[in-house]
């Protein structure tokens, strides 16, 4: 069977919307999409009076080359959030199907499921926040159509190994689509699982330009998956998901010069992550610093509420993650520049002085 046989039959059968840009391209005089013939002020040759390509070929090709997949295996959208939402809407029937997650983890998986009225099966991570593959497989029900695995995990930072992902993909064949969220993979020691896509048609991978590529404000995300899954989601994605200026920024970031700069910044983050982990662990009010393969550290504290407020009073905003299971005493601190990190340490040292 094909993995898309697990998708909602009405999605497989529907006639997708056909936009003017999909139906015709090229030509010198464009009078088919009811656009303005005049560019707006300050357009800088971006042609923002014209609709963008639904899936910009240059961006698709650049991302396919970056991630080591074929262009037909790439769908781009407004951050990873849009891909998560599309997957849930395509594979989960309201009131019948479910997704599986391993809390504590990224909150949008459950939000997208609940918007769709799909159930959320929670299989907690182990006490050390590692993924328990046996527990996941034992807990799954026939209703589960999507299994989300965040690697490195947000908000804890632990990685899931390639062997664990492959084991899950094998066990879920014909049963569910496994979605590996690699938003932070550029900061990790472990490689991407994207090369496994050709081996397992039930594996999809989420990637983003928001973190390592410094484009959080441009909202560029990608789903890497079997060609049939990509074709299915293209049926239900918005006609023009990516604004022209955002695509232009993404192409600049993915240029040869942009890639050199991104890798330089990733190296700085990795170096600063190790420095911060050691410095934080030495402070008297810090109970533990969780090992992280991402661009942040989850820090257990004796009095996280006070620390959060003291940092905020000093103009430093960190993430309060105490509502997450198993993290009732923790704050999540993003790794910034060396100067920003020094400021965090100075405030904490003042608190514990």
Automatic annotation (TrEMBL):
Protein name stated in the entry: Histidinol-phosphate aminotransferase
Pathway(s) where this gene product acts: Amino-acid biosynthesis; L-histidine biosynthesis; L-histidine from 5-phospho-alpha-D-ribose 1-diphosphate: step 7/9
> What positions does the domain Aminotransferase class I/classII large occupy?
47-347
This entry's Gene Ontology molecular function terms read: histidinol-phosphate transaminase activity; pyridoxal phosphate binding
Q: Which InterPro entries match?
A: Aminotrans_II_pyridoxalP_BS, Aminotransferase_I/II_large, HisP_aminotrans, PyrdxlP-dep_Trfase, PyrdxlP-dep_Trfase_major, PyrdxlP-dep_Trfase_small
Q: Which UniProt keywords apply?
A: Amino-acid biosynthesis, Aminotransferase, Histidine biosynthesis, Pyridoxal phosphate, Transferase
Q: How does it assemble?
A: Homodimer.
Q: Which Pfam families match?
A: Aminotran_1_2
Catalytic activity of the protein = L-histidinol phosphate + 2-oxoglutarate = 3-(imidazol-4-yl)-2-oxopropyl phosphate + L-glutamate
The UniProt gene name for this protein comes to hisC
Q: Name one GO biological process term.
A: L-histidine biosynthetic process
The family classification in the record reads: Belongs to the class-II pyridoxal-phosphate-dependent aminotransferase family. Histidinol-phosphate aminotransferase subfamily.
| Residues modified to N6-(pyridoxal phosphate)lysine | 211
Obligatory cofactor(s): pyridoxal 5'-phosphate
What EC number(s) does the entry state? Answer: 2.6.1.9
């Amino acid at each position: 069977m094909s993995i898309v046989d697990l998708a909602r039959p009405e999605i497989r059968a529907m006639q997708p919307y056909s936009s003017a840009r999909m139906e015709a391209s090229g030509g010198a005089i464009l009078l088919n999409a009811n656009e303005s013939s005049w560019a707006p002020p300050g357009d800088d040759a971006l042609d923002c009076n014209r609709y963008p390509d639904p899936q910009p070929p240059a961006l698709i090709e650049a991302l396919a080359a970056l991630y080591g997949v074929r262009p037909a295996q790439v769908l781009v959208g407004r951050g990873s959030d849009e891909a998560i939402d599309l997957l849930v809407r395509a594979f989960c029937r309201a009131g019948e199907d479910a997704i599986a997650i391993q809390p504590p983890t990224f909150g949008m998986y459950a939000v997208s499921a609940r918007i769709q009225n799909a159930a959320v099966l929670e299989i907690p991570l182990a006490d050390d926040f590692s993924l328990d593959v046996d527990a996941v497989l034992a807990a799954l029900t026939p209703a589960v159509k999507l299994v989300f695995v965040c690697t490195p995990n947000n908000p804890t930072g632990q990685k899931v190994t390639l062997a664990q992902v492959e084991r899950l993909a094998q066990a879920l064949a014909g049963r569910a689509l496994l979605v590996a969220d690699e938003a932070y993979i550029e900061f990790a020691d472990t490689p991407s699982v994207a090369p496994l896509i050709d081996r397992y048609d039930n594996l999809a991978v989420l990637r983003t330009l928001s973190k390592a590529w410094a484009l959080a404000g441009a909202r560029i995300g990608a789903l890497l998956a079997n060609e049939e899954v990509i074709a299915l989601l293209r049926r239900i994605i918005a006609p023009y998901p990516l604004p022209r200026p955002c695509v232009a920024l993404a192409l600049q970031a993915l240029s040869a010069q942009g890639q050199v700069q991104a890798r330089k910044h990733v190296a700085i983050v990795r170096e600063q992550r190790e420095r911060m982990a050691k410095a934080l662990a030495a402070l008297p009010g810090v109970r533990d610093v969780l090992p992280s393969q991402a661009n942040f550290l989850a820090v257990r504290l004796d009095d996280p509420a006070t620390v959060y407020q003291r940092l905020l009073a000093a103009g430093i905003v960190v993430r309060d993650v105490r509502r997450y299971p198993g993290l009732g005493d923790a704050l999540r601190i993003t790794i910034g520049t060396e100067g920003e990190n020094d400021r965090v340490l100075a405030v904490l040292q003042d608190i514990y002085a």
